[in-house]
Amino acid sequence: MTKTQRFIILSALLIFPSTSLFANFDFNSNCLKAYKSIFELKLGNARAYISTEKKQHPNNSIIPLLENYVDYFTLVTSESKADFDRLKGNKSVRLDQISDDDKKSPYYLYAQAEINLQWALIRGRFGEFFNAAMEVKKANSYLQENARKFPDFQLNFKGLGLINAVLGNLPDGALKTALSAFGIKGNLETGLNMFEKLADNLPKSTYEPFYDEVVFYYAYVLSDVAHSPSAYAKTMKYTERIADTSLLKSYLQGYVCLKNAHNDEAIQILAKKPESGVYQPFPYLDYLEGLAHLNKLDLNAGIYFNRFLQSNKGVNYIKDANLHLAWISLLKGDKAGYNTFVAKAINNGYLFTEKDKQAKNEAAAPLPPVDLLKTRLLFDGGYLTKALQVLADRQTADYASEKDKAEFNYRLGRVYDGLNKDDQALVYYQSAINQGKGLKYYFAANSAVQMGKIYEKKKNAVKAKEAFNTAIAMKNHEYENSIESQAKAGLKRLAN
């Protein structure tokens, strides 16, 4: 063998490490197929590829990471407490498998961080906040160390982006308290920038197979953490290159359209979602479809809510689905049906999510005026002109209770805000604050946040800060944590 030949072989080994160097962290063909199947929500296919890989390369430590992804998405789609209790013991077994492996691989710390982070996200859904905080701490520590050891390993920034974004805008509560005790803080803008950079650069790199996962987390952060006005545009842009065979794509697009008043588009996307036995059951999509249809006052929406309740084995959105069925009865003029479903909204289901807590509160509250309910639903769907028409001939004095007076002004404020009629919106928001600031309802506090956003847009920092601080000063009302976190985020933006 000549010197030149030896040099070529040595160079090839350095550039493309042989399977013996990173033999036990080998993202090979089986693993990539399993990973792709996971992010299309074809979990049965993923399990089959993992089983094949176990037979062919039983010591490959990518296997426990992939198995954890399967558990994670099983729980994301089922939200079942029984599944959670059954599967959570797998975590320590998988970490043990990985911890004995090749410490020189960039996947060594990364895989352990991912498993911890996935379980932290799941535990948060089931109220295990202290354990979730411990797992975030571990994941953060592993990823920081991995980024120092392997600065060019781009996947580090997926987990770090998520940790920064979520911790940078976490509402007050048990999880924030636990994380603060560990000295872990985040920065929302840092997290968003990490995700945007990854979403732009991954398709042009060797990390391209991980693109769908990055977009999955980025879309979540944009919509649910940052409440970003660009959530719709960016989610639709970045999900465009994901295959139409992906049920996860239908979920991401349907969710962001629904949440950002692109209601007809949400209906179209959810109606065309891929359906066959190969996909993981995902009852939440029926719930979303129900919301979208009811937002345009389509009373056939009850079909979707009932389908959700019948197929759902999870703990979340049971109260909220029943509340929406109650509203459908009310819109049909069926008071007996309304009373039946509000009783279910109070007595059935759990209180892990703010949606269900709010549903229970609303079910226990007096019957809502039909015109305010219609306006609320139409606004949520983005049907602003129709929403305005419903209240065209109404005045504050037409409503008997202080709650309804505050809500009337709040609803009109929201509609005018959506129509970019800022001056009218500000008048109604101020009336909602005056009317509702002593009540337990969210109308006054959220009016203050929305006022702050209008003044921020108008570059009136003094008025914007005043409005955000007004929102923060209001206590003991619905959605207090999320409204306060939005107000604090507004103050943080103004301070930069």
Head-to-tail CA distance between termini: 63 Å
Biggest sheet layout: none
H-E string: HHHHHHHHHHHHHHHHHHHHHHHHHHH
**Global Rg:** 25 Å
Poorly predicted spans: 1-23
- What structural class do the secondary elements suggest? mainly alpha
Residue-averaged pLDDT, rounded? 92
Strand element count:
0
Helix amount: over 70%
Q: Beta-strand percentage?
A: under 5%
The total count of helices amounts to 27
What characteristic shape results from the CA principal axes? globular
Question: What descriptors fit this protein?
Answer:
496 residues; mainly alpha; globular; disordered N terminus
3D structure, described in words:
The chain is an all-alpha fold and 496 residues long. The chain has helices at residues 3-15, 29-38, 43-56, 62-78, 81-87, 90-99, 106-125, 129-149, 156-168, 174-181, 188-201, 211-225, 231-239, 247-259, 263-271, 284-295, 302-311, 318-331, 335-347, 354-364, 370-381, 384-390, 402-418, 422-436, 443-457, 461-473, 480-495. The protein is globular and about 75 Å long.
